[in-house]
Design a protein that fits this description.
2 copies of one chain form a homodimer.
Chain A (H helix, E strand, L loop, with lengths): L2 H15 L1 E3 H7 L4 H13 L4 E3 L2 E3 L10 H5 L5 H13 L6 E4 L3 H9 L6 E4 L2 H9 L3 E4 L2 E4 L4 E3 L1 H7 L4 E7 L2 E3 L3 E4 L2 H12 L1 E7 L11 E4 L5 E5 L12 E4 L1
Parallel strand pairs in A: 4-5, 4-9, 5-6, 9-12, 12-14, 14-15
Antiparallel strand pairs in A: 1-3, 2-3, 7-8, 10-11, 11-13
Helix pairs in contact in A: 5-6, 8-9
The first copy, chain A, binds a DNA duplex (30 and 30 nucleotides) through α3.
DNA sequence: TACATAACATACAGAAACGAACAAAAACAG
DNA sequence: CTGTTTTTGTTCGTTTCTGTATGTTATGTA
């Protein structure tokens, strides 16, 4: 059975039963415990289910606290993400006009921004809410609303970007390689990122070390087109590049 | 049984009975006293129930938590608003292209919409989230994000409305009089409403009875320009108008 | 007040679940 | 075919969860 096939099977099982244990999964799927655990981690990070101790729960069944922060802090590689987010937040300076991409790391950034005279534009609703609450001048882009990431995408969103010229932009990514650049699984999101990058002077990619050497379906930027903020324990093959900044 | 699953069960039991003792919980859930106590502590710290000596109480029956502005306003005239929202939801029909205004009553509407092939456009982020979750094709408008109402307003929002032609539009209001029409305190919001009304074929104003005879700062529509959905106990002076619909 | 009982918190140990590391197998590229 | 990369399975030390035991705190009653 193909890996992706197995992933789909797992998601279906979880949605069918509302929840499932790793042991139960082993009865349904012919794979080792360890593989299934790995799958659950991946599917959780992709947002297709919620991993809990003992197994996984469907997104609809799982209880989500209304506080976004709490939910983020339950996610994978959180220490790394915080370190990266904190550093990125330090790059924000007075009178900046900033594009803030959707994603957990960029969302974490907001907590650590100390500057005040900054204008933000974002396609992520949760980000907008947090930014406005902190008192920033905040603009959201128009477009088709996507439930999973709570962000807008599509032609309208891309057109909306045209009127802006950003001094800085902070982006998340699902994969980073020197050859394929920055990649993400969703084409619509990729197009928004790509366009936003075009309109941005200083482009920053926020990435924890797990994203390096990963390749997703669609490329939204070239490796040398942006500065990459990541953690100390990044793979050696990415060392020495001038645009790779290691924090912590 | 998964730990998280058990948590859900406990919360459901507590909400069902209003309150529950640890002993009662032991009859319903296959877990030791100690585990259930631990669960109650966790659920209390997560804010999902309120732990008391002997067991736990449901959140709503115990006392109101520190509600923000939005939630406080939500609780006012809630029965009336539900009645109005339910009726308005019934007006939604197949293939409609609907503008949904920000506001608590319009938000309530979403819960009662049964039709499925409907497209929504809104300037309220909470609405967009709910609509998309229910599977509707949902578009949000661009603009300056306002924290208080969690909606977008401004020139950009108004321009974004230009491209749409709505079959129906549902609007909230702060005041209704025959002479001054529909009024709201915020000029920016008023302008968005006004523009949206211009682009809408069938305009519905959702208003509980407390809004009648009230006048706010800015008028966004004339009294006879829309159909008003309100409750039976509306003031007599508004009776007899063909465009005033009393429900329940 | 003193006492009895129920509720509670803490400590501890066994069990289950987990992640990391490594080895084997499969898929892939040249 | 050979060497490399990716995926998978196994092992093992660590963490988390759960139940029992024990001592402490609250509550109600005399």
């Amino acid at each position: 059975m193909l890996g992706e096939e197995r992933h789909n099977t797992i998601v279906n099982l979880v949605e069918q039963y509302g929840s499932i244990t790793v042991q139960e999964l082993m009865n349904h799927v012919d794979a080792s415990e360890s593989t299934l655990r790995r799958d659950l981690n991946i599917l959780d990070s992709e947002g297709r289910l919620i991993k809990v101790h003992g197994g996984a729960m469907a997104k609809t069944t799982a209880y989500q606290t209304t506080d976004d922060d709490v939910n983020i802090r339950k996610s994978l590689n959180i220490e790394e993400k915080i370190a990266v987010a904190r550093y990125a937040a330090g790059l924000v300076s007075k009178n900046d006009i900033i594009f803030l991409d959707a994603g957990t790391t960029t969302e974490l950034m907001i907590d650590y921004i100390m500057e005040s005279d900054v204008m933000f534009v974002t396609n992520a609703m949760t980000h907008a809410k947090k930014l406005a609450q902190k008192g920033f001048e905040t603009y959201v882009l128009a477009g088709r609303f996507k439930s999973l990431t709570e962000s807008v995408v599509g032609e309208e969103t891309i057109m909306g970007l045209d009127k802006y010229n950003f001094t800085k932009g902070f982006f998340g990514t699902n994969g980073v390689t020197v050859k394929n650049g920055f990649t993400t699984p969703d084409i619509k999101e990729a197009l928004v990122k790509k366009k936003a990058i075009e309109k941005t002077k200083e482009v920053y990619i926020l990435s924890d070390s797990s994203k390096f050497s990963q390749i997703s379906a669609v490329t939204f930027g070239k490796f040398d087109e942006a500065r990459i903020i990541t953690c100390k324990n990044v793979d050696n093959s990415f060392r020495g590049y001038k645009n790779v900044m290691e924090v912590e």
